[in-house]
Amino acid sequence: MSFDKQQNQQTNRQIKLASRPNGVPTADNFDMATSDIPTPKDNEMLLRTVYLSLDPYMRGRMSDAKSYADPLEVGDVIMGGTVAQVVESNIDNFAVGDLVVSNSGWQDYSVSDGEGVLKLDKNMSNPSYGLGVLGMPGFTGYMGLTDIGKPQKGETLVVAAATGPVGATVGQVGNQHGLHTVGVAGGKEKCDFAVNELGFDICIDHKADDFAEQLKAACPDGIDIYYENVGGKVFDAVMPLLNDHARIPVCGLVSQYNATDLPHGKDRLGMLMGLILSQRLTVRGFIIFEEYGDHFPEFLETMSKWVESGEVKTKEHITDGLDNAPDAFVSMLNGDNFGKTVIKVSDVK
Ligand SMILES: NC(=O)c1ccc[n+]([C@@H]2O[C@H](COP(=O)([O-])OP(=O)(O)OC[C@H]3O[C@@H](n4cnc5c(N)ncnc54)[C@H](OP(=O)(O)O)[C@@H]3O)[C@@H](O)[C@H]2O)c1
Questions:
Q1: How far apart are CA 190 and CA 267, in angstroms?
Q2: Given the CA of residue 56, which atom of ligand 1 is nearest to it?
Q3: Closest ligand 1 atom to the C-alpha of 251?
Q4: What percentage of the chain has pLDDT greater than the value 70?
Q5: pTM score, two decimals?
Q6: Structural domains of the chain, with CATH
Q7: d(CA 120, ligand 1 centre) in Å
């Protein structure tokens, strides 16, 4: 069946996992399919996708390696966070026209029983923020920094992917705690944005040949909090700069998501374990909603005020068209996004 460029009211366009990627995903890993629009039963509603969130963690779900969540099966619709509009409702709390944050995945229409679905203010000026600064990534940055990073005024924070939705939140919340904020990002344009718009004290381009030296110079008092988003050579440069009792919230390792092999070079495990011991580091991984789900309402209330007042700024990278989701996803993993990656699937009606 053909895959229309536009959403319609007769069919449900779906993007499915056609095969598991080996390394960087390719077009062959995605199947553009069309099916009937599903019908909601009692206590269910029909949702129409407006915005689709593309997040790095999805790469993990496409593979069948052991993880905290079950992988997608080949043939499944690719999952993902969405802003959607209620088209039909058999649930008391949801009415036709409501805007919600749901997990509808890479498709135009889905049926939901309302579990885990969050209603958005209908007058919200930017509903897509519900997928970024006011949604899962913003919440991740906020909780990881405050609860695991335990920021103390005057300390030094380093975070990479600094202009993405997680890193940008970490940096701006770090500024509110009076930290010396050091961003790491790919390229001059992103670094300038991190400093001039997001308020980082300094931002270092990880593509620079002398990245490690620049990072050292940016952290004259060492590093107290390294918010880990990327791993790889950024972590290699961070390791020698870590202070006693430094905290490392391990949020993600995006530099490794497409890797097919262990990193090249010397085995750093012994060195890392030695550092954890001698420097008495706290290294803690976390999966946001599993650890902190109960805190989401308080986060949303606080962050909504900050976004409204301009205290916290955000940037989105919006691409039109569900059919462009696979390319946009690969680009994001490669660092070609500049801000929160969102697909605009259709208009709010
Ligand atoms: N634990 C959780 O519950 C949880 C929840 C949400 C997100 N996360 C994780 O948080 C991290 C950030 O997510 P996000 O949504 O904010 O992503 P993002 O910043 O929008 O996109 C990923 C960014 O990673 C950077 N990157 C890619 N390859 C890199 C490399 N080899 N070295 C250094 N940087 C590289 C790129 O930015 P530059 O061009 O600036 O380098 C790219 O734009 C990811 O690791 C994600 O998996 C975890």
A1: 31
A2: 47
A3: 1
A4: 99
A5: 0.96
A6: 11-132+315-344 (3.90.180.10), 137-289 (3.40.50.720)
A7: 26
